[in-house]
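Run folding on both entries below.
>entry_1
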Amino acid sequence: MSYKKYYQGFLTANAKVQHFACHSHHYWPDVTRAAALQYWDDSARLVDDKWDYIFGEKVPKVQKQIAGILKLQKPEQLVFAPNTHELLFRLLSCFDWNKPVRILTTDSEFHSFSRQIKRLAELPQIELVQVQTLPFADFTTRFAEAAKKLQPDLVFCSQVFFNSGLAIADLTAFVTSIAAVCQATIAIDGYHGFMALPTNLSELEGRIFYLAGSYKYAQGGEGCCFMLVPQNNGLRPLYTGWFAEFGTLAAAKTSQVQYSKDGYQFAGATMDFSALYRLEAVLDLYHAEGISVAKVHQHVQQLQQAFLAELKAQQHPLLNEQKLLCADLQNHGHFFTFMLDDAAKVAELSAYLKQHGIHTDYRGDRLRFGFALYHDASDYDLSCLSLRRGE
């Protein structure tokens, strides 16, 4: 089945492009344009009263939509922010940095975390341990062993690693193995898993923080990220905004700063909610058309197989299955990563592909190809690679 009819705006604007950078910059369905205009119209119609409308109707609706996708029972424990870095830093601000803080993570976290945590690790009281994700076959075992040894205050790990596409096959078992050996606060970066891999957090609700957003596979564009917050966690973010007072504004004032009793305990301040409108429109579209995450995943798996067949036909010395980082195609992110020996060659190859209308992206020695609902396998054409077989 072709799903292109939902993406005519972006596809028409990029008619001569094979867009394999969708794991980074995903095309938006056409319904998001009307949603953006609706945000303008609602702002004009309601002016200051729009906040009551947004928090009274829009936010609860999208919370329920996300909760349905992730199999959550308490949608009110989801909090929104413009980016995951803001949510991450709010979580980090719960720890007392005047005392030793031990943090366990990996060497493959996205920049919103890795840059910030490396900067914090310059402080003498921050102890940072990064477990290598490769070799991946024993990663989860090695990570649990590191947790037992370090006894961290915070554990932060991705569901799908952005620089490889490698995915933790059983997230519940992974979290359980960590919780069995330490008492850490556990946070999972789900950005490359949400709306890509079927994800059931029902057994993890109340146990983990889970961060994701709409920029990638949720297809709503930038500006709408969210975090699942465990209920009754007892934390008091130092980095906090007035949205976090919702639910307490009518209470008797005390000298201590009060926090909302739900996920908005971790809220910030005034933000542009047009992205939430776009995300709502995408999720409405999926519901109306019967498009589940499982169907998206199945479609992408078929695309990945077609891509590998096309790649095999080219017999390229660098882009081939031997260079592909993959442990299990049935439990893999929606992009492929080829790890080469030379970062300069990767940059050159990506540029060459772009000259031939094939858009990819790369990080150091890794070249990435993403797959999306708006792809048809019949469109794949990598014949330009045959011109470079001898290089």
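>entry_2
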Amino acid sequence: MTTERLEHAPADHPRVKPAKIGVLVANLGTPDATDYWSMRRYLNEFLSDKRVIDYPRYLWQPLLQLVILTKRPFTSGANYKTIWNNEADESPLMTITKQQVAKLRDQVARRYGAEVVVEYCMRYGNPSTFDVVDRMVREGCEKILFVPLYPQYAGPTSATANDQFFRALMQQKRQPAARVAPEYFDRPSYIEALATSVERVYPTPDAKPDVLVASYHGMPKRYLMEGDPYHCQCQKTTRLLRERLGWGEGDIITTFQSVFGSEEWLRPYTVEHVAELAKQGKKHIAVMSPAFSADCIETLEEINGEIREAFEHAGGESFTYIPCLNDDDLHIAALMELIGENLMGWIG
């Protein structure tokens, strides 16, 4: 990238990069590999986050370091191996994020030209938020729009991504102006993208499943009682999707997956509820994951593994997984709409 000398600056003044506006999209993260130590580093960073596990450190860290991280990297690594993109040697989440960013860069370049650049980072693992923010600042980004790729806001997802972004800004001598894009759980363009993904699989009302399960990532119920809006936003996403599809009240239900620990989490639990549906005679179901912007271990392995097996073991006959929106053009259009609104005032 070219640099320029400031007018009236002395000859020894550091050369300055042309001013840019940055769009930084962020997702949860991924291990670098499936071996024990790669998995341990990733899980340690993830499970040490106070937004994710908010137990007192003096109670949680000994359990994490001495028990959980001696065993879980092996099982998690084995699960990741079943979905790993061996050709690119990376997780599907990384592959899909790169595809999303490639399309966003193309759309941003068409609309704004070279003045706006698009980068991506991960809350846990690589590329880290710290490294990417530092690179963007060094490349001349004087304004950065931070876009967490979580449709629904939650403390353990959106908030911790925001925390890390602002920690990264704290390391910069010359901080850029910063904005954070809000959640987009009820945006018509996002709901349209979800509905279209369902209609591709079930093009007519007569073809729809007995039940469509909208499975969202889980959270301790306590977080809801403490003011986290996630549960309510998930319920609204499901309702808006049902209304857009024109389906009946019982045709789509909200459940929560990925339960961890012994305390009560948001209910109903997906793995238990799909089994109950089968026992009730709902033999043909579909599952989708509106809380995930990209397919990942929770969708490709957990839903297509543990949750599918629970349904079939209870007598279910037909289980269809509807993929996340990933780099679908309607999803990219919805994200571009969000980005465009939040760049207003910075660029035309």
